[in-house]
Fold RNA ligase 1.
Amino acid sequence: MRRFGSVQQKIPCVFLTEVKEEQSRKRECQQFQVVATENVNPIALESNIDGALTTEKLDGTCCYVSIYKGQSYLWARLDRKPTKQADKRFKKHQYSHKSCKGFTWNVKEDFKMVPESWVPAHRVQHHNGQPVPDEHGHIPGWVPVEKDNKQYCWHSSVVDYDAGVALVLRPSAENEDLLEITMIPLADLLEQTLELIGTNVNGNPYGMGSKKQPVHVLVAHGSVRIRNPPPVDYQQLCSWFQDNQEGRVEGIVWHCNDGTLVKLHRHHLGLRWPDGDTILNARPVVVHVDGTIREYDITSKDLFTSLSQLNGHRFSRLQDIQFDP
């Protein structure tokens, strides 16, 4: 699989943004809205945004593959966040100064505890040996997905550490219009970030699976291309999201040749998400999960076993995947 930019930090918007004092469309508890202006972000211009690869921004939860306990492991995103008291001080400073600049954190006392196995994300700055929070007051990081951790049961459903494989959704090598669900060695995904999407993630905007038979998959960041993207122009992008069939996506991520990532979310433009069917869930998909790779108990209800019984099956839409009773 071709490797694209690893998502270790918050990705900046392709346009400069401003804060409006109105209810957030993305977060119910947030009383302000971050919206795009019509001015292209200098970061995008400096990185030659016009020559970037344009890919679909997927609505799931970010994951990472790296070594843990001597083997390739899936890691879940876990940002270290401030305590309630520290968060109140931070927000008060933000409100009075209209900026987070000048606020001083005490990382040892101001932040909630995280598991011992937690590690900060790449490129998190450090001061006196302690990770420094970003402008949102968070310290991005990762925690390994253990089999017995119920908090990450949906993450766990897409990996088999004994066989060393993960369930991945990707465009077919033979036909880019066709998606395939297949098993990929975790070792082949090392140091990549992926998005976990499916039944129990973010309200399931892709309509995958059901409560009785949940379906989850990993999608490598940058693997789902937008083939005919509009120019980086505010008005043209607004029209594309609303009027173009290919625009039925949560957003766009541009992968620049120098490794820089920039994005645009529908909410930046004041547009709804989700808003009806998506382009992803309407695409045909074939299942390539070979049951001979690992030993299956045919009475088991785990996702690998269920998908292995559909090996070779093709469905007209991703959301049509269903298992026999």
About this structure: The first strand starts at residue 15 and ends at 20. The radius of gyration is 21 Å. Residues 84-97 form the longest helix (14 residues). The mean pLDDT is 90.
